[in-house]
Write a structure and sequence with these properties.
By secondary structure, the protein is mostly beta strands. It contains no helices and 7 strands. A 4-stranded antiparallel β-sheet has the order 4-3-6-7, with no helix packed on it. A hairpin with a 4-residue loop joins β3 (about 35-40) and β4. The protein is elongated and about 60 Å long.
Length: about 80
């Protein structure tokens, strides 16, 4: 007789700070990243970085709201909004 169980699932979590940000946006994630993409609210990609990024320079962006999508090696992703001042 087998047991009914679910394998352990690691919850994907990310913190971006400071929010709002003026120049450097820090990224704290519990899993290594492979790609970061920042889009404006029109859906246009404005910054893309590959590798395990821990901070990103957003000083060249115009003030406004943006969406940052962080992708992991196992294909998962998480998106958060931030305000550029």
């Amino acid at each position: 007789v087998g047991t009914l169980s679910t394998p352990t699932v690691e919850i994907l979590s990310a913190k971006i700070y400071p929010n709002p940000s003026k120049d450097i946006l820090n990224i704290n994630m519990n899993i290594d990243l492979v790609e970061i993409n920042i889009n404006n609210l029109l859906g246009q990609s404005v910054i893309t970085k590959t590798g395990n990024v821990e901070s990103i320079n957003v000083s060249d962006l115009s003030p406004g709201m943006y969406v940052i999508t962080m992708k992991t090696a196992d294909g998962r992703s998480i998106s958060k909004q931030f305000l550029k001042k």
